[in-house]
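Progress note, project year one: complex with magnesium ion.
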Amino acid sequence: MALTFDGLAEVAMARDLLRRWWGLELGLTDAKGGGYDRTSHAACESVRGMAAAACAKELTDVATQLAKSRERGAVAKTCHAGMLIVAAPVFNIAGLAGLVFASGGSSDAAAMEQGLVRTIAVSADEARALTAAAPRVPEGDIARVKDLVASAAAAVERALPTEIPPTAFSHPFDEIVGDAPAVREVVKLLGKVVKSEATVLVHGESGTGKELIARAIHYHGPRAKKPFVVQNCSAFNDNLLESALFGHVRGAFTGAVKDQPGLFQVADGGTFFLDEIGDMSAALQVKLLRVLQEGTFTPVGGTKPVKVDVRIIAASHKDLAAMVQHKQFREDLFYRVNVLKITVPPLRERVADIPRLAMHFVKKHWRGSSPPPRLSQSALARLVAYGWPGNIRELENEMERMLVLAGDAPELTASMVSTRVAGMVAPPAKSLRDALATSEADALVAALGRHLGDRDGAAADLAISRAYLDARCAALGLGGSGSSS
Ligand SMILES: Nc1ncnc2c1ncn2[C@@H]1O[C@H](COP(=O)(O)OP(=O)(O)O)[C@@H](O)[C@H]1O
Ligand SMILES: [Mg+2]
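Model obtained:
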């Protein structure tokens, strides 16, 4: 994705001021300092005409230095031809995306004259004339030029669409997105689990993808063509749950006007996903244990046992082992269920997957015929900085909401992120204090975004301590788990 100044109000303003006050032009380069389009003066153009490689190297050196240090803001240096270069980096998630720069002015006339004589072999008189005609930037003005170049670079950076680096992790479970180490572990385990018939326990917070994993096990395994049945064990009261799971015979209770097969029969030959198994009553735990041990159960009110062939995948957000300790869950059932255990990490432990997941949901919920909208860096920064207590489901809902707000706009921007996720209400700044708080919050969020939520990295980036960063985030009501993962 090439960088562009198009349509950016801050760039237009910076460019205008640079031209009016110093006669400087704003230019852009790629991440290697190449492909630059504009310089400020004929002398600079002549040098470029004769020593293009050396000019490119000057900008490449700046780019390399900035990429290495991840330094923010603009740097000023004197080039090989004695002219001034002021350049500021534009970063995206993957690293340096390019430079915004102003070059071709002089802040030191003697250096420029000598540089021109050296690089383009003009006479001293010609060099003096060229220097006199070049934009002049007094030493004392350099700080202001740097500010303007940096603000233009920040605007370009904010507008940058998010490029998600391709993952080197490929696996057959296309529906499971992510390549954080914990996700890789899960997927590796899945490869083995699908081939076996063993009972699986999936443990993880609500919205982390437990059901997605259960479905993957079923649909990638030998039972794929048979039913996949889901029942949440905390949804019903005990009697209803029992009759839903095991069915009932006619007359078993008031209203039982005919035999009704249970879900275990529906799932025969297939897979039964028992969600929130930790909420099952003691009585039902006994019945389930029998299904696991003998493959049989008796419908409510019935006398004849029914035999089924069902693979069970159970899920819980609770710690079943601890429940066993507290006698809230049967130990024998626990060992039957816990044959293969898959632990799904919460989203805050795989922050690096947020960009990829966010784009996945944009594509998943995009209903238009044109390509789906892009995701701006600033929007992504806010998504990455948030703590996601509701995990992946909450992220999915947020992306759906943003798509609705975006309509047919080509880009999802920071203003479309809900205030809950963005962590703060940003009313149009009225007082200086509001304005400062808003830009401080923007800087914090952007730094957290660049560092994928890593607070130590963000603090280093902003040249503040980790403790101060935490304190300012708290004071400004910015979300985030406070962990650096
Ligand atoms: N790794 C993932 N890749 C893609 N979508 C995911 C992933 N994890 C969860 N989801 C999606 O997030 C939503 C919530 O997941 P779900 O499996 O229902 O969570 P849980 O059962 O743990 O509450 C679903 O729409 C699911 O498809
Ligand atoms: Mg669920």
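The first helix runs from residue 9 to 22.
Residues 480-485 have pLDDT under 50 and may be disordered.
No further modelling is planned for this target in the current period.
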